[in-house]
Amino acid sequence: MSTELSESQDLNGLEQATDGTSRLTDICSGTVGNSMASIAEYYAGKSVLITGATGFMGKVLVEKLLRSCPEVKALYILVRPKAGQSMQQRVSDMMKCKLFDRVREDNPDFYQKIIPISSELTQPGLAISPEDVEKLSACINIVFHCAATIRFDEPLKHALQLNVIATQQLLSLAHQMHHLEAFIHISTAYANCNRKHIDEVIYPPPVEPKKLIESLEWMDDGIVRDITPRLISDRPNTYTYTKALAEYVVQQEQHRLNIGIIRPSIVGASWQEPFPGWIDNFNGPSGVFIAAGKGILRTMRANNDAVADLIPVDVVINLTLAAGWYTAVHRLVNGKTPGSLSRCEWLILGREGGRNPLEQAFRRPNANITSNYLINQYWILVSHKFPALIYDLILRLTGQKPQMMRIFNRLHKAIGLLEYFSSQDWEWNSENMSMLMSQLTPEDRKTFNFDVRQLNWPEYIENYCIGTKKYVLNEDMSDIPAARQHLRKLRNIRYTFNTLLVVFIWRVFIARSQMARNIWYFVVSLCFKFLSYFRASSTLTN
Ligand SMILES: CCCCCCCCCCCCCCCCCCCC(=O)SCCNC(=O)CCNC(=O)[C@H](O)C(C)(C)COP(=O)(O)OP(=O)(O)OC[C@H]1O[C@@H](n2cnc3c(N)ncnc32)[C@H](O)[C@@H]1OP(=O)(O)O
Ligand SMILES: NC(=O)C1=CN([C@@H]2O[C@H](COP(=O)(O)OP(=O)(O)OC[C@H]3O[C@@H](n4cnc5c(N)ncnc54)[C@H](OP(=O)(O)O)[C@@H]3O)[C@@H](O)[C@H]2O)C=CC1
To answer: Which residues line ligand 1 (CB under 6 A)?
Structure first.
């Protein structure tokens, strides 16, 4: 606990600081260890409600619960119909996913424990039927709230509707649950990214959510768009802003519910479970790896002195399940996932490239990270825009539709949105997470491992890139020789292009002027002298 805060503790274990922050403390700390059931024993016979189960983290949560807590009674998942697919169709497709192969092997009837509930979170009452509300009220023991819009460019009204209002409505539903033991809310480590040092506290919200909701209700979309930058102020996007408001909304309920808040940083592919490298989306680093692997992204701004707070999805889910177990008994857990115990350097992220090449690359992968704005702009011009222009020109000349400039414009928009996070460094406190780790039995520490100190980052990043190839792009590993052949072809094209460029420059600029020729001969002879000097000195040292 920070000494500069003068805090008072109430009977519920909630501490209120004079600066408006609130900290959840464990009023029974030190008593857990031997007296508590193991995590799998705790979940045995429990009914769990999960929102966002069709999303990236939700799917891993469902899989891990079914595999490592086989006695769990039922998983109720809130799902909406989407893109012309019914709820049932989506759930049955989800269960066919490769992610569930291991659990399928252990128990081919695992799907019987999954009970889909139709719900559209942006609708009043979450659009859950009265019968389903009754059913959930009667049986749910633990809620994991993962659903959110994670888009950085989401219009404020929609982000507020989903990330804040839906959370409020879910909390109202939770109040009706007769046997609820814990409500775990998945937030983000960047909810308070306007601060450099982030503690395990809920900071005062940028605005009272109720007032904001009331004000935006009558405003049309144009007005909301105009005032959004003023509202989000020193936060980079509506996502982090609404996630901060959601934390506050959740915290308001902590007198009445056992609340746990998890703040993952940048969630990446799985480290170990159910198998290394599982990933299913283009978000954050995945999109960057893919764009760099396809040879489209050649430069990006990131601070090489900072660290990339990347955390594998299986680690986040293990921590989340441990937090559910602990919160149910001890009214705690408000913590960041443990990226800070072992943090990955940006350079390690940038190094992976050509080992497992992607199919049909646009250019040879050769991405650079720089923290300098002007250098980055220079490379954007030379390595992105110029080749795109040439490629589009060739497409036009061959009667095809130009497309490369459009792709690069989208890439620049996406990378621009990520730069805020890759160019800065934050300090997080993760004492609650360390405390939680100390409370696990040795067996649970293995089964629900969230200690990333043993993680070998270069190996993890390599598996991550293979995962994007296999599971996001659906490329076959057996095509790697063909992909390498394609890269060799691209190299030869580049050599030919560079040779033609030199000949062109010679013919147009140098051959016509005596002075330019003299300068050219001088530069070439200087290069030769340097080369022979280095060759001689390397022979001497050998
Ligand atoms: C050069 C360096 C080498 C590599 C070294 C560095 C690597 C690491 C970089 C790490 C970057 C730092 C990341 C920080 C992130 C901080 C995150 C905070 C954590 C969180 O709390 S939440 C999770 C983060 N959220 C996101 O990442 C969402 C960001 N995305 C968006 O907001 C939108 O997607 C975006 C970028 C605004 C684009 O919107 P739009 O143009 O409308 O496109 P869509 O998203 O609708 O996608 C349309 C379509 O395209 C597919 N797609 C998306 N990206 C790619 C891609 N890179 N390549 C190919 N295809 C892509 C997408 O799947 C859609 O397809 P559909 O078939 O579904 O239509
Ligand atoms: N991924 C990351 O790097 C990080 C994520 N987080 C947090 O983790 C949580 C999960 O993120 P992640 O799994 O990556 O996100 P995804 O975008 O993969 O999943 C979002 C989930 O929310 C559901 N959802 C969205 N809108 C609605 C709606 N209107 N009604 C019903 N369901 C809806 C989606 O359902 P559908 O399939 O129907 O669209 C999907 O299941 C979020 O709270 C996010 O803030 C925090 C830090 C980092």
So the answer is: 150-153, 188, 190, 266, 282-285, 287-288, 290-292, 297, 300, 349-350, 367, 369, 410, 414, 417-418, 421-422
Pairing of strands 299-301, 7-9: unpaired
Question: What are the tens digits of pLDDT across the range 396-411?
Answer: 999 999 999 999 999 9
Q: How confident is the model at residue 37 (pLDDT cuts 50, 70, 90)?
A: confident
Q: Is 443 in the same domain as 492?
A: no
436 and 523 inside one domain: no
ipTM: 0.93
Q: Single out the residue of 245, 238, 311 nearest to residue 464, CA to CA.
A: 311
Q: Over the chain, what is the mean pLDDT?
A: 87
Spatial separation of the C-alpha atoms in residues 257 and 271, rounded to whole Å: 33
Residue pair 16/10 in contact by the 8 Å Cβ criterion: yes
- For 161-203, strand residue ranges (E) read 182-186, 197-198
Domain count, the chain: 2
Q: Cβ distance 426 to 340 under 8 Å?
A: no
Give residue-wise pLDDT tens across range 217-257: 999 999 999 999 999 999 999 999 999 999 999 999 988 99
Is 394 inside any structural domain? Answer: no
The residue contributing the CA closest to ligand 1 atom 28 is: 151
Q: Which CATH number characterizes residue 49's domain? A: 3.40.50.720
Q: How many CA atoms lie within 13 A of 190 on its CB side?
A: 22
| Percent of the chain surpassing pLDDT 90 | 70
Q: 505 in a domain, yes or no?
A: yes
Same structural domain, 436 and 497: no
Residues 511, 441 share a domain: no
Backbone angles phi, psi at 186, to 5 degrees: -90, 115
Name the residue with higher pLDDT: 423 or 306: 423
Measure the CA–CA gap between 21 and 521, rounded to whole angstroms: 70
The partner residues of 198 in beta bridges, in order of sequence, read 428
Domain that holds residue 177: 7-277+309-340+427-452
CA of 113 to the centre of ligand 2 (A): 22
Name residue, tokens 């005596």: 514
Residue 507 placed within a domain: yes
150, 428, 460, 465, best to mutate for ligand 1 pocket (most atoms within 8 Å of CB): 150
467 assigned to some structural domain: no
151: helix, coil or strand?
coil
For residues 448 and 486, membership in a common domain is answered with no
* 354 backbone dihedrals φ, ψ, rounded to 5°: -95, 0
Say if residue 125 is in the same domain as residue 45. yes
Confidence of residue 331 (pLDDT cuts 50, 70, 90): low
Task: Please answer whether residues 445 and 453 qualify as being in contact, where contact means their C-beta atoms are separated by less than 8 angstroms.
Answer: no
Report how far ligand 1's centroid is from the alpha carbon of 332 (Å). Answer: 33
